[in-house]
Amino acid sequence: MALLAKKPKGTADVVPSKSYMWHTVEKLTAETAQQYGFKEIRIPTFEDTGLFVRSVGETTDVVQKEMYTVSAAGDSQFTLRPEGTAGVMRAMLENGVMNEGFPQKVYYILSCFRHENVQAGRLREFHQFGCEMVGSASPRADAEVISLAKSVLDRVGLQNIVLNLNSIGCPECREKYRQALREYFEPHRDELCRTCQERLDKNPMRLLDCKSAEDQAIAKDAPVILDYLCDDCKKHFDGVKEYLGIMGIDYVVNPKIVRGLDYYTRTVFEFITTEIGAQGTVCAGGRYDGLIEELGGAKTPALGFGMGLERLLLVMQKQNCDFMQDKTCDLYFATMGEASVNKALCLTRAARDEGFFVEYDLVERGLKPQMKYADKIGAKFVIVLGDNEIESGKAKLKNMATGEQTDISIGDDFVPQFSQAMVNSMFSGLESEFGGL
Q1: How many CB atoms within 10 Å of residue 185?
Q2: pLDDT at 431 > cutoff 60
Q3: One domain for residues 176 and 166
Q4: pTM of the predicted model, to two decimals?
Q5: How many domains does the chain divide into?
């Protein structure tokens, strides 16, 4: 029978057998952020479209080509968030979070939406772990945020990830750089793609982001931003590099990194791998000291990063990183007859209330198929319940790994007896493993 519906292009399903991988990255990213003093923030899936036009930039690919914008009768236009930073800054301003003292440090795990070409690790609905720090202009804050990103990558077990670092300066020194780029690219205008011909007039730094091989070849010898930094921006960038050195964090200065969103200033960085093809950036971020003022707040320094979880998982799988295993069934009740099912219901409820993962037959299988099912789901223990067990108040607890069987009460003291049986089994396994030492 043909399926009547399939998932939209650029989306992915996470089926139960794969969810443990997501649980791993969600747990480790959140725990690492909390160790650095970051607290979780949650924001709406969609925002007023103007928020992204003002913050991300009217000339960016995100705003011009990739946003999903919708409207309903009587409403203004709304856009599914293409990234997390703008919405988080809006939420912090609107809810007075920035009045609670600096620095304010928040993290989030959320879904984002961009209409773009689907590639390995790049989907139209994707998930992002992000961190934002508000209120510090110090280069130590830059090093701290970069250190957090590296700690996450280290904790999930990634290898061969290179930190690429650059400064794109403040608005003043960046305007001199834009003029230098215009002068460089103008003789090549007719050779550029149509999009870059428009960028040349409006925002020539976008030409450095172009994916066209022809445009990349032209840009190869373009001026670099580091040659146009003002004294303050040079001092700040030198400070970032100094503090990273103190922390023992290796980096490569890459003047080609400009980031694709307009709100960035000064420090920008990417953690890059060569193991997932052309889309090798697993984490990217930087400063955006002018964003909060652009959104109507007071002039406030800020910085952060975003980490695509699909890309992170892709690299983790390629590098055979360890994942947390799903919790498996502690106990399965195999039942025979209506009375035993009713008894299993009572015992299951009692064990679950104490935190155990317990299952029993719900599809009216025979005893042999129930035992096969218990083995298939990885049940650690099985209790077979029939009339004799109910009458005597005792049953056999079978250890599915060893085959060992133990008598156990199925009365009011069932839960503590089962708890003790699990402990005994664990230590028995250790004795068997290390008994020869």
Answers
A1: 23
A2: no
A3: no
A4: 0.88
A5: 3
